[in-house]
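Consider the tokenized backbone below.
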């Protein structure tokens, strides 16, 4: 198993969610979109109920709690970022630039 690739995936996810956190700070209304998505998860089962419950609790904690989780390096935060209600917040170009930048950094390591 290549642990370098696993670390790269973690760092990419963290970088993407750092950008989401910045956008949330600029536009807290994005929280409502995430809450709507989580509610849809409960209704249609598109994400396991345990993920929907966990995200629902985080989102109810307010902006500061959500931002803190998005940029946290804990195992819990990592796990939650794998099933993120913030999909679609970043446009394709921004996502691509973040992923490209992290691929280049990994190539230098």
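A designed sequence for it:
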């Amino acid at each position: 198993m290549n642990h370098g690739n696993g670390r790269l995936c973690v760092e990419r996810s963290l970088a993407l969610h750092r950008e989401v956190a910045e956008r949330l700070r600029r536009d807290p209304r994005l929280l409502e979109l995430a809450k709507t998505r989580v509610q849809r998860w409960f209704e249609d089962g598109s994400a396991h109920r345990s993920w929907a419950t966990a995200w629902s609790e985080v989102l109810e904690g307010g902006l500061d709690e959500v931002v803190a989780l998005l940029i946290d390096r804990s195992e819990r935060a990592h796990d939650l970022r794998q099933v993120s209600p913030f999909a679609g917040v970043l446009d394709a170009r921004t996502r691509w630039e973040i992923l490209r930048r992290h691929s280049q950094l990994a190539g230098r390591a």
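The chain has one domain: 3-108.
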